[in-house]
């Protein structure tokens, strides 16, 4: 059942070339489904808007996509994002600001954008009060 859901989500995502030319840099608040009806497309469109030096949470992206209780769905979509283009997935963190465990490049990319990290027992965290994207 989950595979059927995900298969339906991936179907309408445009190719990388389309995204590179789409100009997805505005900070427009997106609250309803796009014309394709694809939740995955909508999630990736929102992720593309998170500016350099800022982070968003999975739950924040889900809420902006009109699915406030679907943070895990956002994670599943982002796990496949590289198949559809170049998205700033490194700017998405959990509700506590924790980075993805085992993805060292995420920390490097965030630091290169000026985001400060703090080490905790469960891994590096971003101070959401300072760096969370205000959409």
Automatic annotation (TrEMBL):
GO terms for biological process: DNA repair; methylation. SUPFAM superfamilies: Methylated DNA-protein cysteine methyltransferase, C-terminal domain. The keyword DNA damage applies. Residues 40-115 form the Methylated-DNA-[protein]-cysteine S-methyltransferase DNA binding domain. It comes from the Bacteria. GO terms for molecular function: methyltransferase activity. InterPro entries: ATL_DNA_repair (IPR052520), MethylDNA_cys_MeTrfase_DNA-bd (IPR014048), MethylDNA_cys_MeTrfase_DNAb (IPR036217), WH-like_DNA-bd_sf (IPR036388). Pfam families: DNA_binding_1. Keywords: DNA damage, Methyltransferase, Transferase. This is DNA methyltransferase.
